[in-house]
Amino acid sequence: MAKKFKVATTSLAGCFGCHMSFLDIDERMLELAQHVEFDRSPLTDIEHCGPCDIGLIEGGVCNSENVHTLREFRKNCKILVAVGACAINGGLPAMRNHFDVEDCLNESYINGLGVENAQIPSDPELPLLLDKVHPIHEIVKVDYYLPGCPPSGDVFWAFLSDMIAGREPSLPYELVHFD
User: What is the pTM of this model?
Assistant: First the structure.
């Protein structure tokens, strides 16, 4: 039996929709499991990524914890794949880039509708917000991109099938057009 690819996933600032879409490969997950060993992913209870062949990462980079997670993930992944609009260009979380962080915090915790006991959280356990939300390629080297919001299960399947077969991944137009 051939060596299995080790695959890990993680999520930064986003909605976790790309992970849900990854699970949309449905019964093909059984075939994938014949060729892939999952490290950190929603399918395992592994919290930290060990050395792996392919790392799939969704979400933008909005705080200090995201930066740390991303750099550690990159260090452990031979191939890093930016998954979805948030990882590729900041996605919806990057909408806050048009405002000062202080204004965002005030709107959320002081002036927002229904806010009671108005106070901006200040706890050392909370990661520091960055001034802007960044796509992951602005922080680390990215090897491949899977576009979409979220990419479909078929996109994940096509990409991983090519990688397992030793082919350069090629996503057909019908999987990545958005018109």
Answer: 0.90
